[in-house]
Amino acid sequence: MEKKKLCVLAISLSSGGAERVISLLLKNLVHDFDVTLILLSNNIFFKTPKNLKIICLGKPEVLDTTSPFSKLKNMAQFVFKYRAIAKSEKFDVVMSFLALPNIINGMVTTKLTPKPKTIISERCFPTKMYDKNNFAMRVAKTFYPRYYNKTDVLFSNSLHINKDLKDNFGIKIPTELIYNPIEIDDQKTHKDSYKLNEQFKVISVGSHTPAKNQILLLKAVRHLNSGYSLTIPGAGPLTDELNNFAEKNNLENQLNLPGSVTNVKDYLLQNDCFVLSSNTEGFPNVLLEAMAAGLPVISTNCLSGPLEILNDNEPVSIPKGEFYLAKYGILINTEDDLALSKAILFLRNHKEDRKKYSDLGFQKAQNFSLPKIYEQVKQLINNQTN
C-alpha cells in the first residue's frame, strides 16, 4: 500500500521544546508516511531520520531581523516558496507547528488543488506569551482567526491553550489535546545518593529568555547558603544577565552554565532535583524529562502545563512565599523566589519526600511516552485524511 504524503512545516529544528517534539515525532512518522520536512530556517540542532526529505526555505539568520519590512518580505518569500513546493508535491496531509508556519498553512493550502488536509499545532499560551508585546498581540488577534480557521483541525499540548484560543482569538475549528512525547527508559535511572554534608545540586534546563526566568533560581539560592549549586544548560539573550547577577551576589562559584547541550539526561542524572522557573509555558518537555529520569521536581504554577502534569489539572491556591505539595511534585507561584528557596530546602532536608516524588514523577511520566503520544498523532492524521 502506498504511503500517504505528509508535509511537516516548522520554523527550524533548533534546540527549543517544540523542535524537540517535532524531532521525536519524525522518528515514527517516517515509518508510516512519506514525509517531507520543510523548514523556514536552515537551523538544525536535533538529529533527523535518514529517510526524511528536508527542504530549507531560508538560511539560519533569515528570522533574526527586527525590521517590520524585512519580516513582511521574508513572510512573502516563505509563502511563495512553500506554495510552489506544496503545489508540485500534492501532499495528502500538511501539518505545521507554531504560529508563523500555521499562518502560512492557512494562507496556502486552501488555494491548492487538490486541497490537502491541514493540521496545525499551537505550542504556547498566546494571551500570556504576547501580553507584554502589543504588536505581537495585534498580529495574533488579526491573523489567528483569519488563517487558523481556514485549516481543518488544531491540536495543542494543553487544555488551557485550546480554551485561550477559543475564548480570546476567535478559533472556531475543531481542537484536540495531545501532550508532548518523551523517551522513557524502562527503569528509573536517577539514584538518590545525596548526603546532608554535601552540596545540594539543582538543575534547570531551557533557553535563557525572560519567559524561562532562570534568574528566579539565583534569587532563591541567594536566600540560602553556599551548600547549593545551580546548573542551567541552555543559551539565549539573558545568559550575560545570569552571569552578572551571580557575580554581584557572590554566587559565581555555585553557578554552572554549560551552554546548549544534546545530552540533557546526563546532566539531569548528575543533580538532586529539577526546577522549572518559567513565567509561561506551552507544555514543558524538560519537566517531563526530569520526571522520567526520576528527579524530584519543583515548578512554578505557570500557564500552561505544570498544573496538568503535577496535579492532574486540579486547581490549587498557594500563599505568597509558600509552596504546595502536589501529587507528583512541588508547585510554587511564579516570581516567588522565597517560596522556591523554601521548596529547595524542603527537598534537601526530607529524603523520604525526595524518594516519594522521584517514584511518583517517574510513574506519571509513563503517560507521556513517545509510543503512546505518537499513536494519538497518527490517529489524528489518519482521521483527517480521505
Written description of the protein model:
By secondary structure, the protein is α/β, with parallel strands linked by helices. It has 2 domains: 5-181 and 369-383, 3-Layer(aba) Sandwich (Rossmann fold), CATH 3.40.50; 200-368, 3-Layer(aba) Sandwich (Rossmann fold), CATH 3.40.50.2000. Helix content is 41%, strand content 15%. The chain has a 7-stranded parallel β-sheet with strand order 3-2-1-4-5-6-7, with helices on both faces. The protein has a 7-stranded mixed β-sheet with strand order 10-9-8-11-12-14-13, sandwiched between helices. The mean pLDDT is 94.
3D shape: globular
* Percent of residues in β-strands: 5-15%
Helix and strand sequence: EHEEHEHEHHEHEEHEHEHEHEHEEHHH
What would the average pLDDT be, to the nearest integer? 94
Architecture of the largest domain, according to CATH?
3-Layer(aba) Sandwich
What structural class results from the helix and strand content? Answer: alpha/beta
CATH fold name of the largest domain: Rossmann fold
CATH class of the largest domain: Alpha Beta
Largest sheet: 7 strands, parallel
Walk across the major sheet and give the strand order: 3-2-1-4-5-6-7
Helical content class: 40-55%
N-to-C CA distance: 15 Å
Domains, number: 2
Question: How many runs of DSSP E, i.e. beta strands?
Answer: 14
**pLDDT below 50 for ≥5 consecutive residues: which ranges?**
none
Describe how the helices and strands are arranged.
Blueprint: E1 5-10, H1 17-32, E2 34-39, E3 53-56, H2 68-89, E4 93-97, H3 99-108, E5 117-122, H4 126-129, H5 134-147, E6 153-156, H6 159-168, E7 175-177, E8 200-203, H7 215-222, E9 228-231, H8 239-248, E10 255-256, H9 264-269, E11 273-276, H10 285-293, E12 297-300, H11 306-311, E13 324-325, E14 330-332, H12 337-349, H13 351-365, H14 370-383
Parallel strand pairs: 1-2, 1-4, 2-3, 4-5, 5-6, 6-7, 8-9, 8-11, 9-10, 11-12, 12-14
Antiparallel strand pairs: 13-14
Helix pairs in contact: 1-14, 3-5, 7-12, 10-13
